[in-house]
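Handoff note, outgoing to incoming analyst
You'll be picking up this chain. Sequence as last confirmed:
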Amino acid sequence: MLTALVTGSVLAPPALAAPQDPQPPSSTAASATEQHSLRSAVTDENFYFVMADRFQNGTALNDDGGLGSDPLVSGFDPTRKGFFNGGDLKGLKDQLDYIEGLGTTSIWLTPSFKNRAVQPEDGSAGYHGYWITDFTQIDPHLGSNDDLKALIDAAHARGMKVYFDIITNHTADVIGYDAGERAPYISKDEEPYRDAEGNEFDDRDFAGTGAFPALDAATSFPYVPMVPEADQALKVPEWLNDPTLYHNRGDTTFAGEDAYYGDFFGLDDLSTEHPRVVSGMADIYKTWIADFGVDGFRIDTMKHVNDEFWQDFGPEVLSFAQEQGKDEFFMFGEVFDTSKAFTSQFTTRNRMQSVLDFPFQSAARGYASQGAPATDLESFFAGDDWYTDADSNAYSLPTFLGNHDMGRIGSFIAADNPGAPEDEILARDTLAHELMYFARGNPVIYYGDEQGFTGPGGDQDARQTMFASQVGEYLDDDLLGTESTHAVDNFDTTHPLYTGIKSLAEVTAEHPALRNGAHQHRYAADGPGIYAFSRIDAGDQREYVVALNNSTEPQTASIPTYAGKRSYGLVYGDAADRVKSAADGTLPVTVPALSAVVYEASGRTPHSKEAPAVTLQEPLPAPEDNGRMKVAADVDGSSFYEVSFEARTTDGVWTNIGTDDNAPYGVYHDVSGFAAGEALEYRAVVLDNADHTRTSGQRSASVPAPKLSMNLPVEGSRVQDDVDVTATVSPERSDYAVTLQRSVAGGEWTAIGADDSSPTYTAVDDLTALNLGEGTEIRYRAVLDGSVSDLRTVTVGSTVDQPDTVAVAGSLDSELGCGADWDPTCDQAQMRFDEATQLWILEVADLPAGTYDYKAALNRSWTENYGAGGGRDGSNISYNHVGGPVRFVYDHRTHLIGTE
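Most recent structure output, in case you need it:
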């Protein structure tokens, strides 16, 4: 059977066979097998995402978690946003009427396992659930395991599901190092892993094999892991107390190799390459399924875990859940990235069911809040083909507008539209929700958004309580659509956003095609204005036309449909009750400003008389991902069709690689599991709306060679002495051995080293023995078999004396985890020096949205500091951040500091 993985670009185009003519209608054995576009078990859920500590306080008896009255021990302080505020599982259960009334079908809980109550280094508490010490217990601040069972049973009795937010990447910060707490990262090339006998090895060679070398905590790691005696049996299950099951390499910078191996602000990073960790994590979460009836998982930090872990963990846990009768069990991962080429790898190559749709969040904000052209949405939804394979597609993606990390949609809209009247802010908020509910995917409401919660940013600023708050920062928030404040409970079922979301849930429940029907692009204005699409169920064949308008004026458009001279009735919005399509099928629709309308056709789409011709385009490697082949087909018709794609190796068995139900038709076939140069054949079959089929001719292509990319040195930089030279390969394989080469002053290429340690291939070039003159040009490249990377050109030159430390000191420091803003001594604000680039860098994985001021402060004081334009004691630098990752860079040669 044909199976594979993904990524790429090639040195030369693949060999292609001449296309064959489309085949006549046929049902012979030689024809491809027609299929309907997949609808997984979960394509019609309405999620309500809630942080238990911040929702409702059902009982004050568990507020301090049984740890006493000292907030620095118990973590409970209802006056501080970074501490437990008092919400619990009983409170959630008490408010199920409110949650269900919104149209919720699934409750998604933030991590609720027992946490380290306080981590002093972070100056805050584990109210959020991401500092787990015991994976078998509910955190006592939130209640008990019995409270969870009662909540799940009560939700199930109402027909609602309960999802857990789970973590496999790390535990609480318990392990320290012989070099001190939260030490800087040491790469695998600098200090390889060693087995218990002292032999060097690459852990990636063992990932996914079920085997792993024996290790010795004292000698196998770059740092010696140190666990305080009082904490040596702290973690549950017991196997988590074995320090050799962690990476033990120091803190991550969230880039390159250390994004997989480094500790997140000290959190103990599990060795997910180790089979004991894989099986242990699977066993933990199987227990929650079997004993408590959990309906699914949202998985934290998925992109920071190696592929092999997911390829084992996902299918095993899903199979177990289905054996327990959980036929609709569903898992989706957090992959914080807006590139579909990247996020889709986790549902294709890594065999997971779904991922959170971060690209949708960005596109929805752009359209509803920032006035982006409607054509941006057209391009966005056209990219859904990245997710299509034999067992998953974009219809199962949970879509959202904001969350507990990046911030709330109300906050984004207010920031994007300063000075706008409240009715416009509210209309844009509603428009964003309309897009989320009517487009493909499973909409997620972040608790409080339905009450108009805002906040100045993300993280702690977006985690307000639904019950009356005592947190001063929250009491200053301006809630949308209400005169209420956070000083009182906010469970108002008459709030305009609550009633609006409830209405959206009711309309989509009454018209299921609006949730899981095919999503077909119809119309997009060149600028702000109407974006329109159809939703149509493959069985019912009744077309719905959805039209949204992000302009501040009413807009009219003629929208293509599948049927001419057909009456359409209004099912949602403020518009004419009935409209009729012209003979050419175009439907005249007027949409009010910042609104949406939905029309339903009066009958089925006319049946095709015969299947249309289908022609396969030339299969080509996707430029965005060298491990995937773009396979597309042209269909000669204008009705509702579904196109299934098949692939095989030469003389192999034809295997389905995905079915697309909206034009343009295509899939991105994951070929990363095949050898470079291997021949593949493709074909497609179209299924029309009357069950006629037609198969295309075949086309052939070759799997592209791996693509090498240089990472260091930085292009155009000045170098001397030892130069770090690094490269990566796409698609990555643990058996690669990459050679790094150098050319001096245009001369011959000379090998400076070879590396077989993935995922980053490194050599150190010692220039001292070459006695090169100032200004000499050096080029570097990487070579793997016949593949050659891009070039990096640098010049030999001296560098300036660097300070001991540089801090990003500013109004963002508290968001970085500092005890106060403008603190040049804070550890979390300190930048790291990159020898290769001579730059100071601070990578922030998730800075909340907001406007910040900052400067560069040297040597942990204000004695020497640089601001705007690199001026000493210069003015503050202002930075407006949309939320998410950011990279601060300081160059001591120019004294300039900025963001990337």
